[in-house]
Write a structure and sequence with these properties.
The protein is of the alpha+beta class and 275 residues long. The chain folds into 2 domains: 129 residues, MutM-like, N-terminal (N-terminal domain of MutM-like DNA repair proteins, Alpha-Beta Barrel); 125 residues, Helicase, Ruva Protein, domain 3 (Orthogonal Bundle), CATH 1.10.8.50. The chain is globular and about 55 Å long. The two termini are 28 Å apart.
Length: 275
């Protein structure tokens, strides 16, 4: 599932390439990805609007329109926003669920192979309420080590589970929770409230560094994630623990342990480094 670095990459790409362009038509082929509005109403409200900004909130890609509406895309497992200037491979185009025709002739597809992602159209007020119910952005300056400590100390949940709770801190999924905890040397199963001030500071630094480095590498691609041009992210080459269960720890050489004991998700850690 695309996490913060992947959706940030997509949003930046779109902001650089389609902001300022008018959507002249909308073609919907699979309406089951739509949320908040029916297909006819979606096409009617979006057609003729200008994209004023593309940005990320949590794991969402948000397109602001000059009408005051927001197109809110949650890619989930196989969703992607792909710009098509006539050169998009047919293997990608055939899974398009809807397409926006821009005023310069390009298309912006929402491609979703398994159709588990969603595309919503929200008014300004509706989006403000929706966004306000989400947690704090991990790369915002307001999420200081001290603020993170407050969030952690309020919970008995395993620290890995809390990091993935989108009502607490947004954008961190299984990949980057595993990586940040390994960098910080913290056992993923530890109670959140048990972390010391020094451990919280180390975890904060690890979260910021791993997310920032992945954004610089344009995200992590295993199978389905693509940026807006159809390219793959290269951070997969720098993963220390995720997907490496049974392999040696790159820090101490011990065998990495893989388990599903925490919230049923794949957790990989080093018992020696994170004990």
């Amino acid at each position: 599932m695309p996490e913060l670095p992947e959706t940030e990459t997509i949003a930046r790409d779109l902001d650089a390439t389609i902001t300022g362009h008018r959507i002249v038509a909308v073609t919907i082929t699979k309406s089951d990805v739509l949320r908040e509005v029916a297909a006819d109403a979606f096409a009617a409200r979006v057609s003729g609007t200008v994209v004023t900004r593309c940005w990320r909130r949590a794991k969402l890609v948000v397109l602001d329109l000059d009408s005051g509406d927001h197109i809110v895309v949650q890619p989930r497992f196989t969703g992607a926003l792909l710009i098509d200037a006539g050169d998009l491979p047919e293997s990608e185009r055939r899974f398009s669920t809807l397409a926006f025709t821009l005023d310069d002739g390009r298309l912006l597809h929402y491609r979703d192979i398994r159709r588990l992602g969603t595309v919503a159209l929200m008014s300004g007020g509706r989006f403000a309420g929706y966004s306000g119910a989400l947690g704090e952005e991990p790369l915002d300056r307001s999420l200081t080590p001290e603020r993170l400590s407050v969030l952690l100390r309020a919970s008995r949940q395993a620290v890995k589970k809390l990091l993935m709770d989108q009502q607490v801190v947004v954008g961190i999924g299984n990949i980057y929770a595993n990586e940040a905890l390994w960098r910080a040397g913290i056992d993923p199963s530890r109670e959140s409230r048990s972390l010391s001030s020094d451990e919280v500071a180390a975890l904060h630094e690890a979260i910021v560094s791993v997310l920032s480095e992945s954004i610089a590498a344009r995200g992590t691609s295993f199978r389905d994630y693509r940026d807006a041009s159809g390219g793959r992210g290269s951070f997969v080459e720098r993963l220390a623990v995720y997907g490496r269960g049974g392999e040696p720890c790159t820090r101490c050489g011990a065998k990495l342990i893989a388990t599903h004991a925490i919230d049923g998700r794949s957790t990989v850690f080093c018992a020696r480094c994170q004990g």
